[in-house]
Design a protein that fits this description.
- With 232 residues, the chain is an all-alpha fold.
- The protein has one domain: CDP-alcohol phosphotransferase transmembrane (TM) domain (Four Helix Bundle (Hemerythrin (Met), subunit A), Up-down Bundle).
- 75% of the residues lie in helices and 3% in strands.
- The chain contains eight helices and two strands.
- It has a two-stranded antiparallel sheet.
- It starts with a helix and ends with a helix.
């Protein structure tokens, strides 16, 4: 029984370690590694909760530890990645994007006490937001213009709002109730992933395939707003 209880928390700690190393990689301008570690953290994050349910060993400690790990991996790590990515272009003004780390913490705290989010999310979840920014930072580039950098700062502020807003976002937890909706989303993601891989092959640069991460998250956000508009 004790081993069963250790497994979910061990996966959560693996998530936290991925996020911690991702922060370090971001400071070293190793954005592809930071992106890969955030993806690995997301995988551990999925399986820690799933294993707790499968093994029937949920615990208040696990809930709190999960939020702490998520704020490192999906709050601080992507914020540091985009900060280090933009700083050479706009200097210390890039510190503005670190607001996402604070808003991610606020979003996670709200999630822990909000009983409405059992089958869907209220506000953008932290993992897709993290993947969006880590993917942008990891995409190979020759240089970044000041105009593009300030666009990214503005987009980061929009994401801060989306993290804590009262807008509902669909979740895979509602797959049984909204199966068609989930299938259409997955099909869209598959098209974007294949397209990104094809683009990387055409450019003869495999690293460009990371664009799929940002595109899938943007598809998730826009598809969610389309669903909300249709059901009004």
């Amino acid at each position: 029984m004790q081993i069963k209880r250790i497994i979910p928390n061990s996966l959560t700690c693996a998530n936290l370690l991925c996020g911690s190393v991702a922060v370090f990689m971001a400071t070293q301008q190793q954005f592809l590694w930071a992106f890969a570690l955030i993806i690995a953290g997301a995988i551990f994050d999925f399986f820690d909760g799933a294993s707790a349910r499968w093994l029937k060993v949920p615990s208040p400690l696990g809930v709190q530890l999960d939020s702490l790990a998520d704020d490192i991996t999906f709050g601080l790590a992507p914020s540091m990645a985009i900060f280090c990515y933009l700083k050479p272009t706009i200097g210390w003004w890039a510190l503005i994007v670190l607001l996402m780390a604070a808003f991610s913490a606020l979003r996670l705290a709200k999630f822990n006490i909000d009983e409405r989010q059992t089958t869907s999310f209220i506000g953008l979840a932290t993992p897709p937001n993290a993947i969006l920014w880590a993917s942008i930072a990891a995409y190979p580039h020759a240089y970044t213009t000041a105009t593009f950098a300030w666009m990214m700062v503005a987009l980061s502020l929009l994401c801060c709002y989306l993290l804590v807003c009262e807008i509902p976002f669909f979740s895979f937890k509602s797959a049984g109730k909204h199966r068609i909706r989930i299938i259409l989303f997955i099909v869209g993601c598959a098209v974007l992933i294949v397209g990104s891989i094809a683009w990387a092959i055409i450019c003869k640069d495999p690293k460009k395939a990371v664009l799929a991460g940002a595109l899938c998250v943007l598809w998730y956000i826009n598809y969610n707003f389309i669903i909300q508009t249709i059901h009004k």
